[in-house]
Amino acid sequence: MTGRRALFAVGVAVLCAWTLVPIYLIAAGAVGGQAMANAWPKPLLPPSFSLHTITDFFAIAGVWASALASVEVALLCVLFSLLLGLPAGYALARFAFPGATAYRLAILVTRAFPVAILALPLTVGFIRLGLYDTPLGVSLIHTVLALPFAVLVSSSLFAAIPHELEEAAWVFGCSGLRAFLRVVLPLALPGIAAVAIFAFVISWNEVFAASVLTVRHKTLTAYLLSVLSESPLHVQFAGGFVLIVPSVLFIFLVRRHLFAMWGIASR
Amino acid sequence: MRRLTPYLLIAPSLIFLGVLFFVPLVETVALAFQGGADNFARMRDDLNFNDAVTDTFAIIVIVVLLQLLLALVMALMLRHVQVGRGLVLWIWSIPLGVSDLAAGLVWLAILTDRGYLNTVLAKLGVISGPASWLTYETPATLLAAIVVAELWRATAIVLVILVAGLELIPKEFGEAADVFGATPWQRFRRVTLPLLKPSIQTALILRTVLAFEMFAVVLSLGGRNFPVLMSEAFNWQYAQQDYGVAAAYAVVVMAVSLAATAFYLVLLRSPAR
Amino acid sequence: MAEIVIDGVTKSFGPVAALERIDLRVADGEFLALLGPSGCGKTTLLRIIAGLETQTAGRVLIGGRDVSALPPRKRGLAMVFQNYAVFPHLRVRDNVGFGLRMAGADKARIASRVAGAAALLHIEPYLDRYPAQLSGGQRQRVAVARALAVEPSVLLMDEPLSNLDALLRLEMRAELKSVLRQAGTTTVYVTHDQTEAMGLADRIAVLRAGRIEQIGAPADIYARPASVFVGGFVGSPPMNFLPVPIAEGAADLHGLHLPAPKTSGHALLGVRAEDLDVAEAGLPFAVQVAEPMGSHLLLTGTCDAQRLRLVVAADRCVVVGDLLHVRPRRWTWMDPETGAAL
Question: What structural domains and CATH numbers belong to chain B?
Fold first, then answer.
């Protein structure tokens, strides 16, 4: 290898390490337990490999409940994003209707705003409607975050499915809805799964709105934020680790669709 | 097939966004201006306001610029990676799935008094014992820590957009430049960069808007030692229960986000083809 | 089995008229080809019959029933699409049986009809494969099998052979003809390829710019075209048209006396390349290009400064620059202003 190529390879490796090492470190910190968290100097390898800290972490009152709440909120977010976004995406893909561009613009506009901030005024409304401090309430805001993405990506997913296939379905006995369910949806499923996963991750990671809108039924992120100053270090490490693992896993699952999704949604 | 169908299909999402986005947006502005400019006055007179403004802008200017450079370098490097390009791209994209709170906690683990950084520094003999980087007395290093954490977390966002943009540039353009004797630097400046402008614009807008929302990274690393606009808004809303001032902060954040977006749209305007 | 009646169908896309007052009747069991260049409206007409497009005015009747307002699935027809539209996520077996499944037929009936259609189209070996594993020609057969499996009253075909290579197209054409003859289904077949139309159809409707220029049996259209357009479009090479002066009901030129329907003025003499015999005297023909086609020799040249094409025996010795004399054996007359037959 020439000098330049070697330098280049080293550069790539350094950048990879830059991404991966911190994740390793918090994993080590989480797994290492209380001893690890307070140790000085910190060993690079955890002294004891036990999942104790993780289980202890979940045993802390409120933690397991908040993790479940996060899952519930995220699943609701996925459900709503798909229910609202897929039909809209289909409309944009298959119909050239007056107002389509305006609609697209309106959808995109929501991304030019720090959306999480809308949690502030919604607090009052939610209190009145009994949605305050509920997973349902938080999931509604998260849906606002994920919806533009769901609409735009599903629109290009559906557009990629030849219209002829739907016409064939219509000729051979399907109504519009039946053709959508039996032909379009199965073919778009991989892309839709990726959208669902991304919506899940968006909801799982969201901190601000979840913190504003919950008091006793916090999501994991809201819970961790609220105990930031008081909790001991090892708990924070465990919390960070638990937050990261599903996200990294999910990004792995949708890696093939990453480009398609970001490329489309950011136009 | 029926004329009404597309409208029926987009109606639910429109109604949803109308109720949960546009209405609250208007309400926030109304709430902020309730009783004249009182809320804004109280916001401005608060001890933390000036700090919040300067801190927020400082972070954003530094982070966005650094990230753009880093992401550009990474995107260009990626083009030349032959073996394992998919793997490298995946590794570099991992932070996309990381919550800002988690990123804060990760770097907390590294930068805390008894953290990994200090361990390494002590081993190298630079410091004698656990040192504090994240306290009130060390605002410069606190800022640096937040910059590093944000850099780690969010460069992937810019990277993915730039990589997608680079893929759209036909290879022939660069090859033509080579044929005409351009050096790699010239090729980059004259061919790649201009064609990448739309992607850069998109990435900057997205990243800046997200940066104004910055919240959990700051709180986890600096607590209340490093106020930013969003953390102040949160504090006024949740702890102080003063919805008016919180709304005032929200309006400020919205206004600067819009201003930044407009700025980028004008600055990186592509000439009409 | 059903008769199709197109009654005054018009279709406009905004200000553009794609079809103008089409009146057409397809008899029960007949194979009608809609032939014409791109943009003539033939596909639009087919899609209107299918219910995939809605006409701006007029009615469509199938088997005596007015289906104008009905969606495709209620019209009792089947269709083969240009790009086959075979469902990629279903096995061939399930593709062929799709229409029957949607209609709620029981498993036994579906299985037997699928087997029957598969046998007819020779796709039994592929029944458990996915379309991605098949070639274009095989996928096309699946599309046809899917259409035949539902035993439709009417079969619509939108240029089904145009995506196949030349040899495959020829083979499929013959197969299609025999399969459809056996089935006896009323068929409407859209194509821009006149040899396909000539080979397959009982009757051909030639369309141009949204109107039917002529309907008739292939032989009639070939021998007695109703207009310059039809004469030029049908047949390869296209019909020759020579402007000649008429006096007293005949054209006298170059020693030939050809009776004409007009009494005086000008007319276009339409004569096919294979209907010109080389003779001692007659129209002068200066050879410019000689193309040996294997089965015959195609000569392109000029006659009285007009382009003329001539077909002669393959072994004839002809060289560029030769001057020949030709006599028409069969001919037709066209009005030079309107282009219509006289």
Answer: 33-267 (1.10.3720.10)
